[in-house]
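User: Please run a holo structure prediction.
Assistant: Happy to. Please share the sequence and the ligand.
User: Here you go; the ligand is zinc ion.
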Amino acid sequence: MVVCNSCGLKSESRQNSFFVQIDVPKSKAKLSDLMERSRPEDTDAHCKKCERECQKTIRRNITYAADNILVHMKRFQKTSYKTSKNDAEVVPTPVYLHINGKRIRYEVCSVVCHAGSLRSGHYTFYSLDQGRWTCFNDAEVTQMESAPTNGYILLLKRDTEYTGCLEEGEGSAPIKYT
Ligand SMILES: [Zn+2]
């Protein structure tokens, strides 16, 4: 749902693939906690009623349990005179979402990392294959002990074997998206 902050005009657009943007805090955090705190986003876009560029608020809702969710970690900040990057660690924990009254478990299965600045940089790709993390860095392929914590783009895959019961130590409450 997109709401114009000047006139209040609401508009909805539906997407079949789920794309979530997350603010990265300055200190180490868990992915599950950040997805719970996921806030509405502000953007500038044309408003049909105001007939001009307005500030609008976007609220993203997940309305069905898709197989995959793409998560964009907002690591770049732009101020009027410069851009900066936040490399704070985010531990790619499993995420539990409440969708249509059901508790759905998602696991991080691939991570894209970015090294460098907004002007120049290098991408590496990490993927979970049969319980092991593998790093793809140009022609180099290496086995990893664990998933990287400096992910820029994360692919979450639905755990189809998850029954919806709370397991010991899962801690945080599930996220209500609908
Ligand atoms: Zn408007």
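The chain has a mean pLDDT of 84.
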